[in-house]
Amino acid sequence: MKIYDISMKIHFDMAVYKNKEDKRPIIKVVQDFSNSSAYESSITMNMHTGTHIDAPLHMVEDGTTMDEFNLEKVITKCKVLDFTSIEHQITKEDLITKKINKGDFILLKTRNSFQEDFDFNFVYVEESGAQYLKDKEINGVGIDALGIERSQPGHETHKTLFSEGITIMEGLRLKDVVEGEYFMCALPLKITGVEASPARAVLIEDLI
Ligand SMILES: [Zn+2]
């Protein structure tokens, strides 16, 4: 059994969306051994910083929240699809070249996985791609960018996917994972009333 950790490391200098300072995680030592018998720290961070799962409330008014999220969606078989040759966006034409079935959870591996700094021109899923995935009735989609869309004022990609209850994961790291089938476990924190949550995501190969 081999485990691939496909999560981002969380630290102050990590890549954050559009390099916005307010998306940087602030980790503070609350007490240490110089003033206490135990070490404790705290963290303040945006829910969309690092590897995370979006809930419908992110883009849909009155949408469901993270604490209502069904964990069966992210403890599942999944398929890593290699789109590393794509420069800008993943479209329907790109997706139809891969075998995608109803109920699949797909992870999109792109050139994003090979960049550590935030790239304003990151590869994303264009609207026709989102519509194709909706028509295919997949269960979920993850991407190795901090956003599954960009330059979409109407957020069509997010909304199209959410309209069918498709789970969205962002901020994956897939550099070391080759195209193929895996078992995935990606658990969001059980925080009430929020629109997203950080997750530790792993892929397991040859699960016994
Ligand atoms: Zn997000």
List the topology elements.
Elements: E1 2-5, E2 26-31, E3 40-44, E4 52-54, E5 75-82, E6 89-90, H1 92-95, E7 105-109, E8 124-125, H2 127-135, E9 140-143, H3 156-162, E10 167-170, E11 180-188, E12 196-205
Parallel strand pairs: 5-7, 6-8, 7-9, 9-10
Antiparallel strand pairs: 1-12, 2-3, 4-10, 4-12, 5-11, 11-12
Helix pairs in contact: 2-3
Bound molecules: zinc ion.
Q: What would you note in describing this structure?
A:
The relative contact order is 0.26. The protein has 208 residues and is mostly beta strands. 10% of the residues lie in helices and 30% in strands. The chain has helices spanning 92-95, 127-135, 156-162; strands spanning 2-5, 26-31, 40-44, 52-54, 75-82, 89-90, 105-109, 124-125, 140-143, 167-170, 180-188, 196-205. It has a 7-stranded mixed beta barrel with strand order 4-10-9-7-5-11-12. A two-stranded antiparallel ribbon has the order 2-3. A two-stranded parallel sheet has the order 6-8. The model has no long low-confidence stretch (mean pLDDT 96). The chain binds zinc ion. Zinc ion binds at residues 48, 52, 54, 58, 170, 196.
